Amino acid sequence: MLKSRSAGLFLLFLMCATPLCAQLNDSQKLARDIFKELIEVNTTHSVGNTTAAAQGMATRLRNAGFGDSEMSVLGEEPRSGNLVVRLRGTGARKPLLLLAHLDVVEAKREDWSVDPFKFIEKDGYFYGRGTSDIKDGDAILITTLIRLKQEHFQPDRDLIVALTAGEESGGRNGVVWLLENHRDLIDAEYCVNTDSGFDRLNGKRWAAIVEAAEKRAVTFQLEATDPGGHSSIPRPDNPIYRVSEGLLRISKYSFPVQLNETTRTFFERASSLQSGQLAADMKSILLNPPDTGALTRLSADPPTNALLRTTCVATQMEAGHALNALPQAARAYVNCRIVPGSSIAEVLSTLQEVVNDQKIGLTVFLARKGETPPPSPLRPDLVDAVEKVTTEMWPGVPVIPRMETGATDGFPLRQAGIPTYGVSGVFFDVEDNRAHGSDERVRMEDFDQGVEFFYRLAKRLSSAP
At 14, is the pLDDT very low, low, confident or very high (cuts 50, 70, 90)? Predict the structure, then answer.
């Protein structure tokens, strides 16, 4: 009996010596509970409801002591509600906006090994749609507000938390709608957007990322038409061939390198984390003029290439009307990600020169209104706060600014004159990015530590120096 009991205690010790059994504080337990609630509310555009998620978070905040005058659940459509809540400060400084979106991309059960709308703990990870994009951020922000309220913390500025709709669907029900109709609720000196991530590389924490710039997504349409005819009498002037040749010309073209403050600082700092040829190449492209050999080698890596220049890629094509008829029309869609400093008109003009075919119509098919905003300046107070908290929690992990090559709600905020910085506090595996894919997940340990990181960051950013 004693031997059996000792063996059991030894087994328990081995189990709890792992990070999975690390002691959680009350805030981390609360965050996990909130995270679970959010994951299990379907907030997809097709059948989901961000209003339900927003109302659930409002209830938690109300129970923690926030008054109705400090919170709003509002939106243009009944199923697309946003939550905006304010922790009032002394007013010594302008408000700070903390942002995350509630909506998620579609997820089919047959594509997943688990139910995407169930919060699953498995193998040291939390699984579920939105675990990395970005209901982890929603849960962290709500937990941070509740913790600060319970501590009776009074910031020197209002802390505004906005959990929004419409980010994944490209709709106007979230940040854009709030800016156009209720800007006073979210107006701030600057914004910290949790729609970002810190980088794990080869299993190790590599860098704490501050995203201070963002590319602009624009889709162009190529179209060629013809009277058509019977397929038994083919002619060389075929719209499918014509558009295909135009696409091939685009595929072989590389836009010129265009660096900005954010990307220059990224390559400068990232070079110190690399070695050999890669480190030398990152330094060489910062020269004036940049080393052409270094550019060629770095451009061969798709993620690095996306940081260097505007990119365009064919994403869809539609053509023909019958299997036995010559096509009367062919259309293709090219998605471009435009670096700050370049305009839609400039990219359109370049594509027209590259395609070099007047019989192909090339037009803007889908784009946000307005021009591409410049990068947000690298604020010393923000970068310093991120560096200090990072050093406290993960000594030796550097802070590196980076340009977002995808799309976030930071874009319309920058357009509106509110500088925005992507900072999450949660590490993700660079080699295993499952956002928008099947079996989306986040390490349990990284989420738990992200809860603590953002709490410390929020206090630093809202306390007098």
Answer: very low
